[in-house]
Amino acid sequence: MILEIDAGNTSLKWRWRGSAANSARGLRQLEAAVAHAGRPDEVLVCNVRGEEFEAELAEWVAGKWELRPRFATVARACAGVTIQYPDPSRLGADRWLAMLAGFKSARGSCAIVDSGTALTIDLLDAGGLHLGGYIMPGLEALRTALTRNTSIRLAPADAAESAAPGNDTGAAVRNGTLHMLRSAVRAALERFEREHERPRPKQDSPMVILTGGDAALLDAFLKEEPGRGDVLTVPDLVLDGLALAWPNPEN
To answer: The whole model's pTM is what?
Structure first.
């Protein structure tokens, strides 16, 4: 039995390997959820919350199960993916794990788009070489920055998210920020295909793999794009990557 944990910037996702994922607001809620669980063989973690959370989690796991959790660290080559960063440790473990799982799903060139607190886009060629990526604020971060630095105050949305022009300030902000991110993803994909992929039929175009809390807002948009290849949404891509980084944790 293996406990997998994805400690992201705003949420903590966890699952027993092979089971559905769950969300927790923090470590205390996770503790309550597994209070009566048996002792796992391994605890595997992707942590982007910093050293303080890492120490807190390690102390809890050691106290509860007398285990030392294993925290994901980026390897230059793993599961068919090769990283070009001069110092691979400078790449976020969450992005790396998402690439491992995304490349396995695509079985070829792909773009991994994770839309959460930040929106990240990572590009892999057909041989699994990481060609680089983009990092930008996610939807909520963009909207929070606007309300913090202007007199704009957003009321709860009374309509579905859309990239159409807004007819009131709230809609203009919500739609404008969504339009920004959709346009950024489109531009990154167009550059990727232009510079690294030969023109090809839609069914052979690089796969786009979406994950993160706002993936659904990008999914329909990308599927409507003429000439766009397969678009796949995978909610737990980082957790899936843990299984590829450590297929046999005991070894």
So the answer is: 0.89
User: Cβ–Cβ contacts within 10 Å for residue 236, how many?
Assistant: 17
* Pair of tokens at residue 122: 């990572």
Checking if the pLDDT of 203 tops 70, the result is no
CATH dotted code for 2-71 = 3.30.420.40
**Is-contact 115 213, C-beta < 8 A?**
yes
Say if CB 40 and CB 15 are below 8 A apart.
Answer: no
Using pLDDT thresholds of 50, 70 and 90, give the confidence band for residue 193: confident
In whole angstroms, give the CA distance from residue 12 to residue 19.
16
Q: Is 246 helix (H, G, I), strand (E, B) or coil?
A: coil
Q: Give alpha helix (H) positions in the chain.
A: 27-33, 51-65, 93-106, 139-149, 169-196, 215-223, 237-245
Tell me if 2-71 shares its fold with 77-240.
yes
Write the pLDDT tens digit of every residue in 2-52.
999 999 888 899 999 989 999 888 899 999 999 888 999 999 999 999 999
CATH superfamily of the 77-240 domain: ATPase, nucleotide binding domain (3.30.420.40)
Catalytic residue from among 6, 41, 94, 122 = 94
Nearest Cα residue to 64 out of 21, 31, 33: 31
Please compute the mean of the pLDDT values over residues 103-121 and round it to a whole number: 94
Task: Please say if 94 is a catalytic residue.
Answer: yes
| Beta bridge mates, 63 | none
